[in-house]
Design a protein that fits this description.
Blueprint (H helix, E strand, L loop, with lengths): L7 E5 L10 E6 L12 E6 L2 E7 L14 H10 L4 E10 L9 E3 L2 E4 L27 H14 L4 E2 L2 E4 L8 H10 L3 E3 L5 H7 L3 E11 L12 H11 L3 H9 L2
Parallel strand pairs: 1-4, 1-5, 5-11, 6-8, 7-9, 9-10
Antiparallel strand pairs: 2-3, 3-4, 5-10, 6-11
Helix pairs in contact: 2-6
Length: about 250
Amino acid sequence: MAETEPALAVIGGTGLYRLAGLEDVRTVQPSTPYGAPSGPIRLGSLDGHPVAFLARHGEAHSVPPHRINYRANLAALHALGARRVVALNTVGGIGEAYGPRVLACPDQIIDYTWGRISTLCEEPGTKVLHVDFGDPYTPDLRRQVLQAARQAGVDLVDGGCYGATQGPRLETKAEIERMRRDGCHLVGMTGMPEAALARELGLEYASIAISANWAAGCGGSVEEITLQEVLDNVEAASSRLPDVLRALLKQ
């Protein structure tokens, strides 16, 4: 247990390896029953509120999405006392309202991943958990995030379906077209099993999705998607995320 339990835990995605504005930072590297998390957890203060930050892919972006130890990441934050988690997910836009540099707070998810350990019930003898997952993101926390964005004057699209793919490659145009028919508005590689594991751990969990590019075949895109394009768009779109988090911490 941390000396001061974090009022909020933030998980950063591609291009988000530090939390701007975090002060008095100290580092912990907790062990968990599931192994080590992706990297060190940075504990600090944001406007006087204790916050924990973890880079999902590691701070050098060394862990691909299918190799992330999602169980260890969430278990480590839970052990530190965090009960509210805001996941920052870098995504591609499928729906018209979700183009590059748009921020969105999705309310649904479809899991297209495979082979990932997706439950705390994996080991023999573990209690079987049949958690309700009809609303994969905690409704109350979603409302708080949306309210915080309004208070901070930051545009945040309310809702959308996140399609979680295996990665690390990007998707084909045909795969994106299938996802569009399925009702997806966003595509990313880390939304699952993270959201489901958070539910099994009893954590409040919401996502702020950062659109880094149009998904293949969307938005009139014809050029190859480059990592530099992704990073540039994430940097621009995420510049005011600390303002949203500060407003959220005041609620």
